[in-house]
Write a structure and sequence with these properties.
With about 220 residues, this protein is of the alpha/beta class. The protein contains 9 helices and 9 strands. The structure holds guanosine-5'-monophosphate (5GP). Guanosine-5'-monophosphate binds next to strand 5, strand 6 and helix 4.
Length: about 220
Amino acid sequence: MIRKKKTQGQLIVLSGPSGVGKSTVIAELLSERDDIYFSVSFTTRQPRVGEADGVNYNFVSRETFEGMIERGELLEYAKYVGNYYGTSLKIIQDKLKAGIDVLLDIEVQGAAKVRAKCPEAVLIFIIPPTFEELSRRLHRRATDQEEVIQDRLQKAREEYVQIPNYDFMVVNDKVSDAAAEIIAILTAESCRIRNRIHLVSDVSPNTALERNEKEIVAL
Ligand code: 5GP
């Protein structure tokens, strides 16, 4: 049976404290679901060892980033531990309109802005099995000074306060389990009426579909 293509992609927001292993979980997720587009953010932070421009982030100067803010080119942005991080509006809009699911790895202030602009985005918060384990992981990473690690742990405590604003919580104990949980969440989301209504549009024309399209244009 030929399925009609869905008219817009799902916006997926993934947040979690620095060091929780989000990048590893995302890599696992994308290896299982290669139809998802991962949004490469813009940042003013310096690249870490092993990070590549255009792959992990688009690394830009403060001046360039502030120009993007002024021109309204960002869906959302936030300052995090002294650096700017932001998401390109145009790229996201284009992908969603083309029916492609888009994954954002962003912190809590940015996630709140996405929620306000796109209420149907699915917001997932990843936590470590324990807070002590988070501290161990940040120390093991050994890319940041102790002071920066302590900043990140403090930031994590503040981020936990925002957890009730998310839709789902995933525990990253074992990477493959965390990725499997996210895939389960995305499968459930794709079964929502608003994401499947196009399958019955020939039998029952429905205004919900039209509403969805309007929302994405409004982004
Ligand atoms: P890191 O410096 O460890 O790569 O990232 C620090 C934090 O910035 C992480 O929590 C990450 O999710 C967040 N982040 C990365 N890109 C963006 C973005 O485009 N917007 C926002 N608001 N946060 C981001």
